[in-house]
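Working notes for the structural subgroup meeting. M.R. asked for a predicted model of this chain before we commit to crystallization trials. I am recording the input and output together here so anyone reviewing the notebook later can reproduce the run.

Input as submitted:
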Amino acid sequence: MTITSRNSHANDTTALPAPGSTSQLTSIIAWTVLLTVLGLVMLATMRSPEKDDIAWLLYVARKWLAGQRLYTDLVEVNPPLIIWIYAIPAWIANAVGLPPKWLAVPGFATMVLGAAWWTANLLRDQGAIFARRTPVFCAIGTLLLALPGVEFGQREHLMAASVLPYLAGMAIWLNGGSLPRRQGIAVGVLAGLGCALKPTYGLAFVLPELVGWLRHRPVLRAAPVAGVIAALLYAVSILIFCPAFLDHAVPLALALYGGTDVTVLDLIQKATSLLLGDAVLCMIWLLCYRHPNQRTSFAEAMFTVLMCFALGATAVYFLQGKNWFYHRIPAVVAVVLALMFWAADKLPSMITDMSRAGANFWPTARTLACAFMALVSIGTLAFGEAVRMRPWIISAMEPEQSTEMRIEKIIRR
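Returned structure, recorded in token form:
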């Protein structure tokens, strides 16, 4: 199966890495980081009390499997797709006699790592910085594993992973290439079902699709068509199998979540690091990728798609009116990936230019300024992540001291 791309290697400024010890060392380091993060996340998630949302979804899934009716016998406001997904580990856990959490957490890790592997495969033939699949996969996988923290397995987490292959295919199209039809249908179906988990995030695709249509003549591609059809078929399945969702869950959700909206100032305060990341992406795009003398490359196309998706996902976060972190996960994933890919694309050539006598000062200065902004953005996001994860890590180290365990002891008394 071949993915076509217009001048995928010719337009990149960095030569393909020669095989050798450096390549092997990079792969070893990448695997070490990924497996270490995977182990730590599994340990923390297994030992700490379950997040209330995730514990409830597993409970509802088990009761549904036991014969109770969704939205009639079981009070629930989430759409049925997430219940069906959670029912898989719940059913296996019940069959083998294990706690559902022990199957759900590894299952979610497998899902996001599968999406990361698929994305890395799609990017493999598109340019020098993506040519080695292992480091790209490990970078994406590490981010998807580490970022959610206690929100591991939330709808937004799974959705953010599921749309990455689609975004990679969109970048290939933006750069003048195309996916094979079956591949395009597959990534479209996955993205459509991913958006069905949280339909409002379908708005995040409007800006990248608009940019693509402005650069190319309007064309019906397999991926978006398949995504829309998959989402529509899912909607029809709700009408057939879960009609009570519209009668009971939707009115309850509107009443329940409508009372939890916060002010715009509070939304901005909680999303300061994300908004800074969005601003940095826009500045980098203007300074590094839209320079009049800069040739178009696949790295620019990938950066543009991720930037547009991040801006759209940030807008969705504000439209939802909640200051919950997991509503920001899709946007944060796109911001961090865009900054990582930009650094891999530009920094090696900048270092080469700095070591060369008579090199043009302004391109190097421009890249240095962008690198500083990217470092500040990543640092701000990392600091916020550390503060947010601290209680989760403490509860994993000393689960008996967690608030959940203390409340359980009080109830049992």
